[in-house]
Queue: 2 jobs
Job 1
Amino acid sequence: MSRTAVADAPVDRAAPPVSTLRQPRLPRWAPLGLAAVAAVLGIGIGLVGGLDSRLQWGLIAAVLYLGLTAVLASTVEGTRQAKDRLATSVIWVCFLLAVVPLASLLWETLVRGAKVLDGYFLTHSMSGVITLEPGGGIYHALIGTLEQVGLATLIAAPLGLLTAVYLVEYGTGRLAKAITFFVDVMTGIPSIVAGLFILSFWIIILDFGYSGFAGAMALAILMMPIVVRSTEEMLKLVPNELREASLALGVPKWKTIIKVVLPTAVGGITTGIMLAVARIAGESAPILLLVFGSAEINNNPFDGAQSSLPYFIYEQWALGNEASYDRAWAAALVLIAFVMILNLVARGIARWKAPKH
Amino acid sequence: MATETPPATAASAKGATRKGDRIFLGLSRGSGITLLAIMAAIAVFLTWRAALAIGADEANFLTSFEWDANADPPRFGIAVLAFGTVVSSVLAMVLAVPVAVGIALFISHYAPRKLAAPLGYVIDLLAAVPSIVYGLWGALFLVPHLTGLYTWMDTYLGWTGLFTYHGGAARSLFTVGILLAIMILPIVTNVSREVFRQSPKMQEEAALALGATRWEVIRMSVLPFGRSGVISASMLGLGRALGETMAVATVLSPSFLIKASLLEPGGGTFAQNIAAGFKEAGSTGRDALIASGLVLFVITLLVNGAARLIIARRKEYSGANA
């Protein structure tokens, strides 16, 4: 249609300069229209070709959409615009492609988990429950998770925070470079390796037993680099002018850091720490090696085997019958809810403490 | 009054400066050094136990296909585990990184503004979903749904030899790769999005003002700026994929064999083998698992180190300093 406008243009004397400056464009509704056409064609081909998977229909429609857009745009608008439109469509398709499994994960957990999740499930342990039958709960696992994660945070958060302060505010020399490098390396440490380290050091060599505290130490190793990196990023975002202004007023450096730099970044730092907590709350590998798992309630993290939510899920999955699958899904739902609430609270704090403009 | 106060505060501030600063510097430097000490301790203790195990090993630790660490004499090797770990993680990277960069660009530059903030939020939340939940979903939902795809791949790609499939539960390395890709997608997206969002607005606006299309803006100003960030994001993703334990342990049906077809059940990864074999392991068995853990540790160390070098080398061109 834009083509015809250009063809008619010589009749109108005012039009030519406009048409040389502005290339013909597809109308605004073109992407939506093309998507509709592609969807109809995809469904049509699917029905005619006898493909029974809806996913295949969707993929065919997506490919058709990409092709149609590219052809139409390159004929009407030229190559550059066509590339732009193609990139836009590819990115939309990427997004939709990724949404499918992630949405399915949340949906499955929600639907299957809601089946046995109730007050009884949250307040009872698995002690004395026959695993083939419904019943029992996750109280012991909840206690374990809270204690282990709490201990790990107590170890990792101060160490991580101070390390980040050192890197951003003091570190210039070789030591700072080494720390930066090894923090990066440490972020990549698999949780099972952290578990193996504590196993060899704490349980095999120092001969302590399995305990929640051993698990907490491994979790702290995993948490530390995350805290350092997120805090570091946040501290770097604090404008230098603030530091300079404070120092110029004669405020000592440590006080500048505590009263100016950290409060400015406190939202981001809290968010970082809570995200780290959320991350380690879901770790099951070190728990498997160090806390060993238990069906009973054990309130003392320093002595004896405990359970934890992620470990409980693994344990129930491994039992492999319907009743324990139900318990696993319900525990997964609780774990996800726990992690999400942590995230939401972290966001709330970030927004509440954000520097006001 | 006003003339007297300044000298007093200046004097007290000076005293506080020295002492407070020294304590604070000591504390923060001490934390940094503690961190280094932990890294060193990890390397030392793992190497020590691993050396004991490898000393007792009757088979070749690097090339042997068997794993009888609890037998007497113990015979074990990591060839199968190394193969499985590398294949599944690389597969996950190849599948996840392009999609993740796409989503990151979608959120930072394409999505309608009202949609972008909640979307970023949702991705943040998804990055926090624990791996064991992915494992549960993978084992009970993804595996049954992949048989269709695998049959299709067997029909059209079977001639390559890599994708032959003879039915049965889809508990193969390829499934592990897909699950790992889904798992690392939110993290890679998250980090990339943060980087893209920080790309210099002036450059983007300048490019737009010169008549560049949105894609040209992204290619010329956003992607070069974000390159080191994307590499760093992929590194995080790869690190998680390499060491992922529970999701692999729930989805894979392990065996100590290397199969040409990625769709056939079998194989194993370092982390999965440790989780699966730990409870039955005796004293030598445990040390053998620690030895395999050490190899995993070294691999992740090399990957992270290499990525770090790439980032350091490209930083000056990427515009990240601007």
Job 2
Amino acid sequence: MSNEKHSNYSVNEDSQYEIDTLTNDRLLKDHSYDGIQELDNDLPPWWKWLFYLTIVFGIIYLVRLWVFEADDLVQNTEYKIEVDEANRLYQASTLSQNTELEMKVLTDANSIAAGKDIYDKSCAVCHTADGGGLVGPNFTDDYWIHGNTMEEMFQIVTNGVLEKGMTPFKDQLSPQKRLEVLSYIVTLHGTTPANPKAAEGDKLDWPY
Amino acid sequence: MALEKFTYDNKLAKNFAVITIVWAIVAFLVGLIAAFELLYPSVNLGLEYLTFGRLRPLHTNAAIFAFVGNGIFTAVYYSMPRLLKTPMWSKLLGQINFWGWQLIIVLAAITLPMGLTSGKEYAELQWPIDILIALIWVAFGINMIMTMVKRRTKHIYVAIWFYIATFVTVAVLHIFNSFELPYSFFGSYSVFHGAQDAMVQWWYGHNAVAFFLTTPMLGLMYYFIPKVSNRPIYSYKLSIIHFWTLIFLYIWAGPHHLLYQAIPDWAQAVGIVMSIALLAPSWGGMINGLLTLRGAWDKVREDPVLKLFVVGVTAYGMSTFEGPLLSLKTVNAISHFTDWTIAHVHIGTLGWNGMMIFGMLYWLFPKFYGVKLYSRSLANTHFWLATLGMLFFAIPLYFAGFTQALMWKQFTAEGYLKYPNFLETYIQIRPMHMLRAVGGTLYLTGALIAVYNLFKTANAGKFIRFQDAEAENEVKHVEHHKGWLNHRKIEGKPVTFTIWALIVIMIGGLVEFVPMFIGPFNNHPELTINVKPYTPLELAGRDIYIKEGCFNCHSQMIRPFRSEVERYGEYSKTGEFVYNHPFQWGSRRTGPDLAREGLPFDKGGKLKKPDAWHYEHMINPQKTNIQSIMPPYPWLATKDIDMDIIPAKIRAMQTLGVPYPEGYDQKAVADLQKQAHGIAEGLRKSGIEVEDQKEIIAMIAYLQRLGTDIAN
């Protein structure tokens, strides 16, 4: 490591600096650690401005929260706004489409396919994919706990059976979707599942 | 002034370097196994010890404390004597540091798969090991400080500033976060509760990243980059400014892990603001690293060591840009609980930590053995595999995180959740998880090549243990400096420097914690929730939940978003967690949130399932859903609840302020048996054969309790 002084670049009488020959930057005198030297470069201006900017951001942020309690910074307010907005939006849309849904089994291929998709995602966890039943009852046999008319089943899917653990799906599935999934469940009747659950409820006539 | 002669002893640094490589392979391999478990749950071979919930803490601990930890010690024990022109003060303390640290790692590798965990991320180890960690860490610190006291150079170099900050801060973080009350030799409860515990944990967790994965790496960078490239540091002023601002600001940033969660707005805001302000100080380090290479870019093209350093420092710049970004509430609302965070931290570990440490090893081994590196082209191959591995790891996970978050939040035109079934959102990102495993495989392959290359290098030479050196003793020199250079004064007083660093890093923590420990700590003051302590059976179940590491995949924290309230139920309130020692909010939803798992539908619950479903699901999740990636937990139905420990657990909870009645510890077991009998009877009625005292009964009791206090 050269200790030679470059007097032409020194800024004070102590000759504080030497020069790094590759970059022409000033080296700090006496800054040598195991041969590692340090340059006397200033902070890059863009870096300084970046730092100031983030500090200004912070001040504005805190003032907006603590002094003005801005709606978009107070967590509970943010939530209320989001829910109010959604309620407004869906009230309008549900009013417009609040026509009576006919409680009729859908038979078209598209509805059945849509119903199967819903069934596999939402129902199979308790009733198994083939409808044989696990925690929930068997859909393939002739026995029904809460009835097997479309009206009765729609009621079950909508409001659940709390004491038995059946989920109410009114918040998850639109009425149309509930009808689709029921239409699919109807198709499972009479099929032969791999591990059928023992019959529960009463033997009922099959109305479809 | 006369030159004094002394000798450097390379043995300790060499030992740490060798063990670093060993633990690197272990950490990467365990991570890869964990990645495959998320694709195929059967990868755990049906063994409780290898489930994701127990393996993931082993992976993170191995990567952070074993791989990076030993890498840090390598850097410190090699660079410090040379920067201070004196051997390390105590060989004995060095030996204690080495063997003690390896012992801790081995204990972690045994206890974590056994399920002995405190349930706090990156601080999972149980209290006897925590004490051991503190002792070993202090031995390391004393050795550093005494070496500085005995130094021959007048000033301490910036690398050592970072080492000092590392030592003092990690000591403070580890000790404070590990305050736990033991109820047995390998069991304890965090003394902090709920939201308090969350604040302490993420103050720790975030600053483990800051002061274990960042500041010591900056120290490493400040020594090895100028050394390898033979270039001067770009800016001494920048070193000063970015060092002090970095360590001051970092400590405040913890609450950004808890945005939109059940902590007060002011705490979140402080976390956000300080995280944003961290951008420039972090980039100060990157600039000083990269610009030091001005005039040496031709060497960078040639030298795999410098290539690794450049990508490492660039990865540091990327992840410290991303960090502040993720701290913004709008971004965090999407990123949190998703793979985005996983991608972010792996840019840090695979990129910054991994590349810096391997770069250092490629440079040190030839020095240690007095030969050239065995193969430069193999090192280049490693470099490319590591770079590609990192990208293949992170980029798919960015997509995955974004995709899953959007699916969670999407509503249909009628106002229903578009994807009400959680699993559906997971199936969607499975291909991304496959690509992630490919990335991990590439990275591990690169590391294996490094092992071979370094082994061959060592084999070709003979270990040079002692290196003679000479230097003047400058400590007594008098100096006069003005302006910026006033910092020189404190650089000449290492003990004062250490104390100042300690003061600076204490401020943020104190400001954030004091209000939590004195006043009421609640972000829902309008709400009084009648929270009851857990029944003994629920408490036993909770401890099994923690033991199995359920929190590694399931959060218990519903954020105040319509999409989460629709899916999981009313959002979580601070007050609900007041008897939770430790808190279990989680950080990644690989499975659905469980905060209101037990809340009945007529009380606003969304997810409640019958006991029988929980039984079937835990015994075999694929039976309830063939696509589920949750591993089966059949042992829960064969293992008995540990009844003998129940009174001690109740007494520990009473000590922590949980209001069980006086003398309840003696009645708890009877209550537990009664409740267990009720649940088991119900299951037997559903045709499930199970005995009262099995662990699964406690788990079901706990799950059915979750989130129900709000209905009281």
